[in-house]
Design brief:
With 647 residues, this protein is of the alpha/beta class. Helices cover 39% and strands 14% of the residues. The chain is globular, with a radius of gyration of 26 Å.
Length: 647
Amino acid sequence: MAPQNTSSSGSSAPASRPSYTDEQLHNALLNFYGGSSATAETCGHIFGFGNPNHEMSMLQRITATTMLDYESKLNGGQDNTDDAAPSIATLLEQASSFHKAHGPILPLQSIIQSKSPCMTLAAEFKRASPSKGDIASHLHAGEQACVYFGAGASVISVLTEERWFKGSLGDLREVRLATTELANNNNNNQQQRPAILRKDFITTKYQIAEAAASGADTVLLIVATTPFNVLQELINFARSIGIEPLVEVHALVELDVAISAGAKVIGVNNRNLHTFQMDLVQTEKVAEELTKRGLTFHHDDCLKEDGDKPQLSVCALSGMSSAHDVDRYRNVGVGMCLIGESLMRATDAGVAIKGLCLDPKDYAASQSISGGAYTGGTKMIKICGLTNPQDALVACRAGANLLGVIFAEKSKRKVSVEQARDIVDAVRKFGERSDRMEVKINDGNKDNPLSALVAKSRALELAARRPLVVGVFQNQSFDFIKEMVDKCGLDLVQLHGSEGMEAANSSNFGVPALRVVDIELGSDGTEEEKKDRSSMDTAAAILSKVTSDPIAILLDTSIKGDKHGGGGTGKTFDWTIAESIQNMGLPVIIAGGLTPDNIGEAVGNVRPFGIDVAGGVEAGPGVKDVDKLQKFIGGAKKAAVEASKGF
């Protein structure tokens, strides 16, 4: 399969590029490994090395394509014509001139260590990726980088690969110049500009020299595709021109290679770039291994005044999006987190960065359980009534983190096992996982339902960093629900009938359960509760009945006289009930009658923990209207950002 040509928004990439056969790609890799003289000593860590039947991974295809592109570029001649590629010597002269005009190269490890005890943030500019397609192709590199820098990023990572990531060296230069200008304009704050990382598939000294000439302070070197001897040469060359590289590993065998080659800043990619599977434990495994070997790296140790700085700095790469992620890696000594996709998709990247709580004091304050009102804002966006994987992927890409498939018998959106399985498979692939997500719940608060539900809501928020599939059931047997969980691979269930609060205990199904609480309307569409009690009274009554069994509470509209439970009414309830419940400390998800037109009001006024929609974004029963769905999610995100500014 030949690589696909792509166009690059905002990039200086050529309109068309050559395509290569598998044989050409394969031969390029073999030559890079050393041809017939390649040995297990230098290449034993490389995926498929020594296997004549090995099929190239996507990472290897991209790397080989990049090598052939550069070979073609350089074979066109150097320095002889106006269109010729400059030589390394010329590039280094350009780098020297650039640094005289715009400031010297910044030392990556010193930048990271100077931020302790705060986590260093490497915020990434990435228009697209092979696994996710377009992410934010409309954004301008310099503008986005300035938002990152202004919000607290100390490193800006710029994807410069053209075919799959739609980047360019022009983006990198733009980022360097824009952030330098911003730092100079803010000189009264004595704020140092961010270090700029060239993130690409680097296999030659030439690419490092290119990076320096375009203003990069550091470059990414990927151990998974690089022979040991070449890695060592690239590290030494980078240092010879003042650049400390970020050396990326995934597996522990790659860690051996990185350390032996002399890496000082080690980035742990939680994503296996050969399979695109994500495992957030990978960084913790590397930290544990470094500790076993007696190598110093812990970020907190940078604060010690009576000793040397740690030998190494460890950076977590890929899969992070929340303050919980940052704190997770802070606890094992990681000094930098690289975050890209979630910031590129964020309605307000600056607010998103503030929400990462890079300072441990900010995180501690955000996690305090004081028994006060819930003021965390909207964290969960659930798109329910999905019947096909195409709609599920649209929802995922737009930013939904809960995807509902309905098994309730009376629903016009009821799915078959096959439909549900297809949706689960698509959502897992999007989330770069191969199995059910585990929601880690601390059951230590069983005797205090409110505290238990607050803690569980946080656990749900943490687990839903990658989208989860929720099976919706209504007055169906536990055995049937458990069967659907197992057959379809559901991450969560939602009980939408008269099963009772205790039925939502995870022991009944093997996965956590959302519990729906109906807010009843009369047959004329007016609220029954209003006739007899205030919203605060209704909220208090609901709180008095909750138990510690569910993972979260979802409020939905029901019609008086419906003995099967609510849902699907298309009508809103009095949102002040939800507001009152949250003022009493319990985060809730709200559903019922939500649409793109009213979601801004719902999120802005109530600031619910979550929102849930089905019919409000449909073209017909079970078929989503893409425009409505995107407007709904975009409107919710925008309103959540605006609402958070008051807290």
